[in-house]
Amino acid sequence: MRNIVKQLNPKLLHFASLEFFFWIMCAAYYPFVVVYLSSKGYNNTTIGMIMAVNSFVLVFAQPFWGMVSDWLQSVKKVFIILLTVSACIYLSVPLYNSAFIIGIVLAVLTFFESSMAPLLDSWVVQGTKSEESISYGSVRLWGSIGFAIMVYIFGKMTNIFSINILFPSYAIFAVLTILICIKIKTDKPVVSVSFAHLKVGKLFKNYYYIVFLIFATVLFIPHRSAFIFMPKLIEELGGSKVELGIAYSVMALCEAPIFLFSKYLTQKFKPVQMILLSTIFFTIRQLLFSIATAPIHAILIQSLQGPSFALFLAGTVYYIDSHAPQELKAFAQTFASAIFAGIGGIIASYGGGWVIDNLGLVKMYQLGIIISIVISIIFILSFPVGKLLVKTADIKE
Question: I need a labelling partner for 183 at 20 to 30 A (CA). Which of 19, 103, 152, 220 fits?
Answer without folding.
Answer: 152
